[in-house]
Write a structure and sequence with these properties.
Strand content: 15-25%
Structural class: alpha/beta
Helix content: 25-40%
Shape: globular
Oligomer: single chain
CATH class: Alpha Beta
Strand order of the largest sheet: 2-5-1-6-7
CATH topology: Rossmann fold
CATH architecture: 3-Layer(aba) Sandwich
Bound molecules: adenosine-5'-diphosphate, the ligand Nc1ccn([C@@H]2O[C@H](COP(=O)(O)O)[C@@H](O)[C@H]2O)c(=O)n1
Number of strands: 7
Radius of gyration: 17 Å
Number of domains: 1
Length: 212
């Protein structure tokens, strides 16, 4: 037993599958001071390309992420060291200039489309969750979200979905389902799956002598 080691839960699945909703639903069961959320999207690489070129990057490819930095910062948090987390701005397709100070916590939820594609990241996780939502539902949610929150037009979202998001989902993301311990259909509103996860997290916290 790794006494006092924080618990790391990986939550993955396609874009707009409900990963963030699952993470929030878990959050709601614990007091804020015991959990933190680390989004893989914060670790998109910085680019010096002009905006028009940045728009065309395949953001659903494993090489779009600075995985060594995510691995280093997750390792730091597990070792109870604080980090300066990068901030990503979807509206400019680039990292923002600021960083966010993140203090270590007993439960770390790592959320993102490709967190299970990297073996070194998988090795840091205690529980691996895949949120499984049909492609048509995900694309509808994505259109709504990207137009409301990420500064995209309908044509932008459709064009990006067909050229990079959909093919990369089937090539890189969906195959990582085999690494998951739990597959959750329909995301954050699956109360049975959320209750099972919360019960398991509480059991590991007790086993490691950590209090909520
Ligand atoms: N079960 C659901 N029913 C309806 N809309 C949902 C559901 N889960 C998530 N959404 C919506 O879909 C969008 C994407 O959900 P989110 O949890 O952010 O997905 P992800 O983190 O996988 O991209 C959000 O706008 C969210 O409000
Ligand atoms: N500049 C960017 C960077 C990323 N994306 C898309 O974000 C998706 C991942 O975020 P989710 O919350 O949906 O998991 C991913 O599918 C990228 O295509 C983007 O559109 N622009």
């Amino acid at each position: 037993m790794d006494a006092q080691k924080p618990i790391v839960i990986g939550v993955t699945g396609g874009s707009a599958s409900g990963k963030t909703s699952v993470a929030r639903a878990i959050f709601d069961n614990f007091s804020g001071h015991s959990l933190l959320l680390l989004e893989q999207d914060s670790y998109y690489k910085h680019s010096d390309l002009p905006f028009e070129e940045r728009r065309k990057i395949n953001y659903d490819h494993p090489l779009a992420f600075d995985t060594p930095l995510l691995h280093q910062q997750l390792t730091d948090l597990i070792a109870r060291r604080p980090i300066e987390k990068p901030v990503y701005d979807y509206t400019i397709h680039n990292r923002a200039s600021e960083v966010v100070h993140v203090a270590p916590r007993d439960v770390i939820i790592v959320e993102g489309i490709l967190i299970l594609a990297d073996e070194t990241l998988r090795d840091l996780m205690d529980i691996k969750v895949y949120v499984d939502t049909d492609d048509d539902i995900r694309v509808i949610r994505r259109i709504k979200r990207d137009m409301a929150e990420r500064g995209r037009s309908l044509d932008d979202v459709i064009q990006q979905y067909l050229t990079t998001v959909k093919p990369s989902y089937h090539q890189f993301i969906e195959p990582t389902k085999r690494y998951a311990d739990i597959i959750v259909p329909e995301g954050g509103r699956n109360t049975v799956a959320i209750d099972l996860l919360v019960t398991k997290i509480r059991a590991i916290l007790a086993e490691r002598g950590l209090r909520e």
